[in-house]
Amino acid sequence: VSFEERIRNASQTNKSRIVLALDLEDPSPERLARRSKELLEKASPFICAVKLNRQLVLSLGLRNGVDSIVELAHELSLPAIMDAKLNDVGHTNEFMTRTYADIGFDAIIASPVVGWDDGLEPVFRVANSRGKAVILLVYMSNPGAEVFYSLMATQGQGPARPVFEQFAELAVQWKAHGAIVGATKPEVIRRVRQLAGDKLRIYSPGVGAQGGDAKRALEAGSDYLIVGRSIYQATNAAKAAEQLRNEVL
Ligand code: BMP
What we know:
With 249 residues, the chain is α/β, with parallel strands linked by helices. The protein contains 12 helices and 10 strands.
């Protein structure tokens, strides 16, 4: 089953477009693993996927650590996304893609900045051969992102165009599954949707804690919302996930 199908199925079953960013921190790895699993399990009826980041990978390690969380996600019929933000030369990107695929991740996030040749080519090659999805950063959610993602740049003789528009077109050309576009920038989401049509799923982080509005992002064209702190910092995380899901049904 492809990632695309897995997330669509989970989204339909749970009537949710929320990807949980499981970014808990804890000085005790044992407690971190336990808390992360408890949270994932409680929030699972209200989300369509889980995204793991460095908080868990660096603290728990992959084997006998993060792998058990990926396994739990699968037991709960949820796909797992590795937020690796791959941004290196080919052989290193290839190693990371293969390693995260071996752990069981269904999708991986990468940066388009390194380009295709000896950059993202091996990422797509390995991911495609293993049935994994690649999601590219097209416009990040933090205020500082604007400087470079909106930069006007020319390719060869062509006219100057914002860098993010070129990233969106590359994502389509390279047959990425999706694009990350910050919920903090609804006008950018609208433009990416216009450029990509239905060829990309748009994932929007930055809801709540970073000031983005869930409804506005979805109205502008996002398919999925990536949400961390608004859920896991709530007094009742499951309730917060349920409420957010119901608000944007
Ligand atoms: P929060 O909802 O707590 O702000 O978390 C957002 C999550 O999305 C974090 O895991 C962060 O790494 C990720 N993210 C983001 O915030 N903005 C981006 O542009 C890309 C991301 O991956």
